[in-house]
Write a structure and sequence with these properties.
It contains 4 helices and 13 strands. By secondary structure, the protein is an alpha+beta fold. The protein has 2 domains: 2-78, Gyrase A, domain 2 (2-Layer Sandwich), CATH 3.30.1360; 88-213, Cyclophilin (Beta Barrel), CATH 2.40.100.10. The chain has a 4-stranded antiparallel β-sheet with strand order 1-2-4-3, covered by helices on one side. A 4-stranded mixed β-sheet has the order 5-13-6-7. The longest helix is centred in the first third of the chain and has 16 residues, at 21-36. The N and C termini lie far apart (45 Å). Mean pLDDT is 87; it is low at 60-64.
C-alpha cells in the first residue's frame, strides 16, 4: 500500500495495481473498516477502484506529523479480513428507454435480447460517483456494451437506467448525462432528507443488484 499527500489535510492510499475482483474485495474490506473504526481525526473518506482518499480535520499540523504509516498498516491488515456477504437487491425496471433500440442495433440484437441479457446477471456496486448515489455497476455482459452518446442530454430523469460503455447504472437525480437510456425504475436511490449519511443512499459499494423486468 502506497501513501501520497493529497492537499493540506488528506492522503491518497493506493491498495491495488489493477481493477479486478481482488481489488474490489480489498477495497470493500477497507471501506467497512473505516466505517466501523475510523482513525482519529478522519472527517471523510472516498473510495475508488484502486485507491482510498482519507480526508482529515483542519490542517493544523504538517503532513509528516500525521500518523499515516500506522493508519496504512491498519488498513492493510483489514484488507485481509473477511467481508460481510451482501444480499442481492432487486431493482424493478420498465424497459421502454429511448435508447433501447440503439443498444440493440449497435450489438445486432433484438430489444428483447438486450433486456434479457441486462437482467441475466447480478451486478456489483463498484463505486458511487458522478452524482449523489449514482452506482457504477459491473460486470456488464460484453454483448451489450455500447458507446456513450456523442451529444449528452442536458437533462436525464431520475430513475433512468442506462448503459455507458462497459458499465450500467441508474441516475439517482435529474442530471445531464450521455449514457444510453434503456429503462426506468421507481426505486429512489438518493434521499437528502434522511439525516444519517449512509441512510441517504439506497445502494452502497459492495452491494449486489439484480434488475427485474416489470
Amino acid at each position: 500500500m502506497t501513501t501520497v499527500p493529497y492537499g493540506p489535510n488528506a492522503w491518497m492510499l493506493t491498495f491495488a495495481d489493477t481493477v479486478d475482483d481482488i481489488a474490489f474485495e480489498r477495497g470493500r474490506r477497507i471501506s467497512q473498516h473505516l466505517e466501523k473504526t475510523p482513525p482519529e481525526g478522519l472527517r471523510e473518506f472516498v473510495m475508488g477502484y484502486q485507491t482510498v482518499l482519507l480526508i482529515f480535520g483542519e490542517p493544523t499540523v504538517k503532513h509528516q506529523e500525521w500518523p499515516i504509516a500506522e493508519v496504512a498498516k491498519t488498513l492493510q491488515q483489514s484488507s485481509a479480513s473477511k467481508t460481510t456477504a451482501a444480499a442481492i437487491k432487486e431493482i424493478p425496471v420498465t424497459y421502454t428507454g429511448p435508447d433501447l433500440e440503439r443498444v440493440a442495433r449497435h450489438n445486432s440484437l433484438s430489444c428483447d435480447e438486450v433486456v434479457k441479457i441486462h437482467c441475466n446477471t447480478p451486478y456489483k456496486v463498484y463505486v458511487l460517483g458522478f452524482a449523489p448515489g449514482f452506482p457504477y455497476l459491473g460486470e456488464l455482459d460484453s454483448r451489450i456494451h455500447t458507446p456513450r452518446l456523442e451529444t449528452p442530454r442536458t437533462q436525464v430523469p431520475a430513475g433512468s437506467v442506462g448503459i455507458g460503455g462497459c458499465h450500467t447504472g441508474i441516475y439517482p437525480i435529474p442530471n445531464p448525462g450521455g449514457w444510453n437510456l434503456i429503462g426506468t425504475t421507481d426505486i429512489r436511490l438518493f434521499d437528502p432528507a434522511i439525516e444519517e449519511d449512509r441512510g441517504k443512499f439506497y445502494l452502497h459499494p459492495g452491494d449486489k443488484v439484480k434488475f427485474v423486468m416489470t
